[in-house]
Design goal:
Blueprint lengths: L1 H14 L2 H14 L24 H5 L3 H9 L9 H13 L1 H22 L4 E12 L8 H6 L6 E15 L4 H67 L5 H35 L28 H7 L1 H22 L4 E12 L11 E10 L7 H67 L5 H36 L3 H8 L3 H14 L1
Antiparallel strand pairs: 1-2, 2-3, 3-4
Helix pairs in contact: 1-2, 5-8, 6-8, 8-9, 8-11, 8-13, 8-14, 9-13, 11-12, 12-13
Length: 518
C-alpha cells in the first residue's frame, strides 16, 4: 500500500499545479492508513459436528430445512415445559449479572464514541485575568522606559476567547483507534450474549435439579410408606408368633435408613430453589410455595449440532475472541501511527486588554491561525517498544481465537457423547427399575403365601428402592447433559437478547437522556 501511495503522489505532483498537488497529496496520504488491514481468520474445521455413529441414521433422516428450524428454535422450548420457559424469561429480565454486563456494554459504547470524537475538531473557550510584573533585568528597553516613567513593569492583563484545533488523520492513526474501540465494543456485546446464555442454562440446570430432588424425595417418601406398612404387618405376625422378633428389627432398621435419606433430599430441594430465585434476581426464598411440584423436564430424542462453520457464528465466546483479534490488529496501526508526523490545524479568536473596560472593544481583538506539525524524534525507544508490544498482543489474540475455536469444538463433541451415553444409561436403568418392581411384587406374593422368608422380601424392596432412585438420577443427568449440548452449541442468544432489550418507551427515554447529557 505504501508503494502505491508513493507512486500516486509522484504522478500527481508532476501533472498538477503546486497548490493543487499539495492538496491532493494530503488527501491521498489520508487514505494511506498505517498498520495491517484486518481479515477474518478461517480456522481449520472438521467436516461435521457429531452426531455420534449411533445417531447417524437419525441425523440423516432430518432434512436441511428441518435442521435449520431446530437451530432457530429457542432450545428451552424443546423441553416442552412452560414453567421452565417462564423462569428463563424472568431471569433474563431480572438477573444481576446481566445488569453488570449491560453496564459494561454502555461503558464500551462511550469509549467508542470518545474515540470517534477525536476525528472532529476540538473547540474550547477560556477567560483569564490577573496582574503580572516583568523583570527589570529582562531583555529589551522595558526597564529603561520604566525608569523614565514611560512604562510600567507591573500591569493587568485580561483575555477572553476561543481556541480550536483539528488533527488531520493523515495516516489513519485515529481511525485505527476508533476501529479498535468499535471491535472491543462488539467484543463486550458478545460477552453480554455469553452471560445471557450462561444465565439461561444455569436457570434450566437449577430447575432440573429442583425437579430431580422433588422426584427423589417423592420416591423416598413412597418407599418409606411401604416400609411402614410392612412393619405393621410384621409386628402383627410377631405378636401372633408367626415370625421371629428379628424380622421386625430388620424392618425397623430399613425404615430408619429411609428416614435418614429424606433429610439430604429436602436440603437439595431447598438449595435448588434458592439458587433458582437468585438467578432470577430475587431473594433466596422468593419462590418458596410459588412452584408446584412437577416432573423432570424431558429433553428431545435428538439434538441437531448443525455445520461446523455455524458454530463460529453461534458461540458468543468464539465471536468475542474474533472481535478481540480485530481490535488487536487495529491497535498495531495505532502504535505505528505514534511514530509518524501529525498535522494539526489550529486557530484562536479572542479579546485581550490591559484594562477590563476595554476588553470588548474592536481594538482589543486578537486572532491566530495556522498548521502545526508534530514529529517525534527521540522517546528513548518507547515508540518502537509500543509497536513490538502491539504485535505481541496481536499474536496472543490470534492464538486466543484459535484456542476458543478448538475449545468450542471440544465442548460440542464431548457434550454430544455425554448426552448419548446418558440416554443409554437412562434406558438401561429404566429397564432395571421395571424388573426390580416386578421382583418386589413377586417377593411380596411369595412371602404372603409363606413360600419365602421376610429377608427375601426386604432384599427385593431394597433393590426396588435403589433402582427407582437410580432411574430418577438418570432422568436428571439426561436433562443436564442435554443442557450441556445446548450450551456448547451456543444458540438462542438472539431470542434472549430481544427479551433483555428495554421496552420502546424506555429506549426512547434512555436516548433522550443521553442526548441531554452530551
Amino acid at each position: 500500500m505504501r508503494n502505491a501511495c508513493k507512486s500516486s503522489s509522484l504522478a500527481l505532483r508532476r501533472s498538477l499545479p503546486r497548490w493543487s498537488a499539495v492538496f491532493v497529496m494530503v488527501l491521498l496520504a489520508a487514505a494511506c492508513t498505517v498498520g495491517p488491514d484486518y481479515r477474518a481468520p478461517e480456522p481449520p474445521l472438521p467436516d461435521r459436528l457429531g452426531p455420534a455413529p449411533q445417531q447417524a441414521a437419525a441425523a440423516e433422516a432430518v432434512s436441511t430445512d428441518e435442521a435449520l428450524v431446530l437451530e432457530q428454535l429457542a432450545w428451552w422450548d424443546e423441553f416442552d415445559d412452560p414453567v421452565l420457559s417462564d423462569l428463563i424469561a424472568r431471569g433474563v429480565r431480572g438477573n444481576l449479572d446481566l445488569e453488570i454486563a449491560a453496564a459494561r456494554v454502555a461503558e464500551a459504547r462511550a469509549v467508542r464514541r470518545a474515540q470517534g470524537g477525536r476525528l472532529l475538531p476540538t473547540v474550547s473557550a477560556a477567560a483569564s485575568g490577573g496582574r503580572q510584573k516583568a523583570s527589570a533585568n529582562g531583555p529589551g528597553p522595558l526597564a529603561e522606559l520604566a525608569e523614565a516613567g514611560l512604562a510600567s513593569l507591573e500591569n493587568d492583563l485580561f483575555t477572553v476567547g476561543f481556541d480550536a484545533a483539528w488533527e488531520l488523520d493523515l495516516f489513519g492513526r485515529v481511525g485505527r483507534a476508533r476501529e479498535a474501540a468499535q471491535a472491543r465494543l462488539e467484543g463486550v456485546e458478545e460477552l453480554q450474549r455469553g452471560v445471557l446464555l450462561l444465565v439461561a442454562s444455569e436457570i434450566a440446570g437449577a430447575y432440573v435439579e429442583l425437579r430431580g430432588a422433588e422426584l427423589r424425595l417423592e420416591l423416598a417418601e413412597r418407599n418409606l410408606g411401604i416400609q411402614e406398612d410392612s412393619l405393621q404387618v410384621i409386628e402383627g405376625k410377631v405378636d401372633s408368633g408367626l415370625l421371629s422378633p428379628i424380622d421386625a428389627e430388620r424392618t425397623r432398621a430399613e425404615r430408619a435408613s429411609l428416614v435418614a435419606a429424606l433429610a439430604p433430599l429436602r436440603a437439595q430441594r431447598e438449595a435448588a430453589g434458592h439458587r433458582l430465585a437468585v438467578l432470577l434476581g430475587e431473594s433466596p426464598g422468593a419462590l418458596r410455595g410459588e412452584l408446584a411440584p412437577g416432573p423432570v423436564p424431558e429433553p428431545p430424542a435428538w439434538i441437531g449440532a448443525g455445520q461446523p462453520q455455524d458454530l463460529l457464528s453461534r458461540r458468543p465466546d468464539v465471536r468475542r475472541a474474533e472481535r478481540e483479534l480485530h481490535a488487536a490488529t487495529a491497535e498495531v496501526g495505532v502504535a505505528i501511527g505514534e511514530r509518524i508526523p501529525r498535522l494539526v490545524i489550529g486557530g484562536s479568536r479572542g479579546q485581550e486588554s490591559a484594562d477590563l473596560g476595554d476588553l470588548l472593544e474592536s481594538a482589543s481583538r486578537t486572532w491566530s491561525f495556522g498548521p502545526r506539525i508534530e514529529l517525534p524524534i527521540f522517546r528513548g525507544g518507547q515508540l518502537a517498544a509500543g509497536v513490538e508490544a502491539a504485535r505481541a498482543r496481536l499474536a496472543a489474540a490470534d492464538a486466543g481465537y484459535r484456542s476458543a475455536v478448538l475449545l468450542a469444538l471440544e465442548e460440542v463433541e464431548s457434550s454430544l457423547v455425554a448426552y448419548r451415553e446418558s440416554r443409554a444409561a437412562h434406558d438401561a436403568l429404566d429397564e432395571a427399575a421395571s424388573a426390580s418392581g416386578r421382583a418386589a411384587d413377586l417377593a411380596e406374593v411369595l412371602y404372603d403365601e409363606g413360600l419365602r422368608d421376610h429377608l427375601v422380601l426386604l432384599d427385593a424392596q431394597r433393590s426396588q428402592t435403589a433402582a427407582d432412585d437410580g432411574l430418577a438420577l438418570a432422568r436428571v443427568q439426561r436433562a443436564l447433559r442435554a443442557l450441556d449440548v445446548y450450551r456448547a452449541l451456543g444458540g438462542g442468544w438472539e431470542i434472549l437478547e430481544r427479551w433483555a432489550a428495554p421496552a420502546p418507551a424506555e429506549a426512547v427515554a434512555d436516548g433522550a437522556e443521553a442526548a441531554v447529557g452530551e
